[in-house]
Amino acid sequence: MIKILIVDDEQIERDGLQVILERNFSNLKIKQAKNGKLAVDIAASFQPDLVFMDIQMPGMSGFEAVEKIIADNPHIKFIMVTAYATFDYAHLAMKLGVKDYLVKPSKVSDIVKTVGKVLGQIEAEQRLLEKSKFQQDTLKKAMSVFETDVVTQLLFDHVHEVHLDELVELLNMEASEEKFVMSILLPLGSDDHYSIIKEKIRKIGSGWVGALYGRQLPIIVFRNQDQTFRTQATLLAKEILTLVKTTDNENWFIGIGNVYKSLNKIRQSYQESLIATKDTKLPVKYRFYSDLPATVPGFDEHTSRQYEQQFFEQIRSGEWEQIYKNITDLIDHYEQEGANLLQVQQRLAELLWIASRVMSEMGVESDTHYYSSKATDYRQLRAETKHLLERIQEAFYDYNDKLEADTIQKIKQYIIQHAHEDISLDAIGKEVGFSPIYISKIFKEQLGVNYIHFLTECRIEEAKKLMKDPEKSLKEITFEVGYHDPNYFSKVFKKMCNLSPSEYRKKLLG
Question: Which residue ranges does the record assign to the HTH araC/xylS-type domain (predicted)?
């Protein structure tokens, strides 16, 4: 429905024009104003699409009223109505952007023709606005999907093939140089909480939110240089925890990793944040990794932290032979040093906890494994530690055994068929029955590229085929192959083909 405001100091003129409009056009909502001042007030609340403005009125003139209305509502269109069509009036009207003139008295046919032309412009603009809004909404949803995949790639995979700057640019979010990771443990079945947290982080503009895997939600947080790291992290943790219902408080916990400058090192902050969640029974429901005692005592702190990171990566990669050797060497070292047996058992239990957490993130159903009793000597400690590691290893291999010979081909085929959609690791995971992190891992291991690079290749190849049709515009092709921003499509295409889309098409059709 198009809204029209008729402004004239003579009621007979207003009523006559309204009758003509209602008889010749449908879907109109019409209001009247008897002077310029009243027109300004009504326009502010009514927000008309078109205003018929008489020029000569007592008090505020029509041109003065137009100036005031346009200042707050530049989209409104005006048709000036006057008994005096002078050059000065026409010149001033043009400066104000008035669409047309009606001279009193006007023929009904002239009024209908003039109004029909302006209404056509208004309807075309409305359609364009609706299309733009739809594209913006679609882009927002696509960015949300892509954001979780970028976080997955950064935290669980080495991103070499897709340049990190491109990933950051695609997310269209100002990222600070320094970053850290917060890992949130939520109650199972917390999809509603996930959406609320994601919206909260997006409003604050403080980071990228990953996908929810079981109970775990990772967030890459951008450092705010106006606050200390601990102040920023503490305030953000408290803000997230305000979203928790009192009854669920026991099941929530937030681990906070250290700050790193390079995105290549953000995985280390993630691992630290995860380790910081190992004791969720604390009265304060968040903890900094830097506040934890070293998991591997008896070494300097740097060596101890390196051991944790190494153990984390070895479990994730399934390097079991090396894992057994390192654990055995560690127990031997403690025994030679004469370390307290129960303390050593506690530290080994924490390493096993890390192993279970890594398995869980990959989608492997593996409960945290505990020692059945307090060890009485190092021989018993070795035997039971080996037994617990074997149980974790067994769960790892059982999960891998589910991987069918053609699973990677199924994943490739799914990506090829759905490349034009807002595809995600979650969607692929549901299709083949594996966790998104595990898919990312095996895809790169077996094909040598991560899935985002493969998806990009599929889209660019399809774009090349569509460019053979000279009737299709590059903008149409952009949307058809799955991109929502022609400028970004152009950048990606040029990076992959060393030619811009227009240069490639010119060469192709030349």
Answer: 409-507
* Strand pairing report for 207-209 and 216-222: antiparallel
pLDDT digit string (tens) for 322-358?
Answer: 999 988 988 898 888 888 888 888 888 878 888 877 7
Strands of 186-243, DSSP E: 207-209, 216-222
Is the distance from CB of 186 to CB of 247 less than 8 angstroms? no
Whether the CB-CB separation of 17 and 44 falls below 8 Å is answered with: no
Give the architecture-level CATH label for domain 173-292: 2-Layer Sandwich (3.30)
491 closest CA partner among 45, 165, 268, 123:
165
Query: Is the model's pLDDT at 180 over the cut of 80?
Result: yes
pLDDT band at 39 (very low <50, low <70, confident <90, very high): very high
* Least confident interval from 160-164, 209-213, 253-257, 453-457: 160-164
DSSP 160: -
pLDDT digits (tens, 9 = 90+) for 146-158: 677 778 777 775 4
DSSP string, 49-90: SEEEEES--SSS-HHHHHHHHHHH-TT-EEEEEES---HHHH
Query: Tokens at residue 350, please?
Result: 């924490």
Q: Which two three-digit tokens encode residue 483?
A: 């991109």
Burial state string for 26-36 with b = 16 or more CB within 10 A and e = fewer than 16: eebebbbbbbb
Right CATH number for 407-509 from 1.10.3210.10, 1.10.260.40, 3.30.70.2740, 1.10.10.60? 1.10.10.60
What is d(CA 106, CA 82) in angstroms, rounded to the nearest whole number? 10
pTM equals 0.56
Locate all alpha helices (DSSP H) within 266-300, ordered by sequence: 266-275
Torsion of CA 216, 217, 218, 219, to 10 degrees: -160
Bridge partners (DSSP) of residue 29 are 3
Whole-number Å distance between alpha carbons of 408 and 431:
12
Phi-psi bin for 424: left (phi > 0), alpha (psi -120 to 50), beta? beta
Question: From 3.40.50.2300, 3.40.50.720, 3.60.10.10, 1.10.150.530, which CATH number describes the 2-106 domain?
Answer: 3.40.50.2300
For the four alpha carbons of 15, 17, 23 and 27, in that order, the dihedral sign comes to: negative
pLDDT tens, 207-223? 888 877 767 889 999 89
Q: Are 481 and 136 in contact (CB under 8 A)?
A: no
User: Burial letters for 470-486: b for 16+ Cβ neighbours within 10 Å, e otherwise?
Assistant: eeeebeebbeebbbbbb
- Tokens representing residue 67 in the block: 């100036």
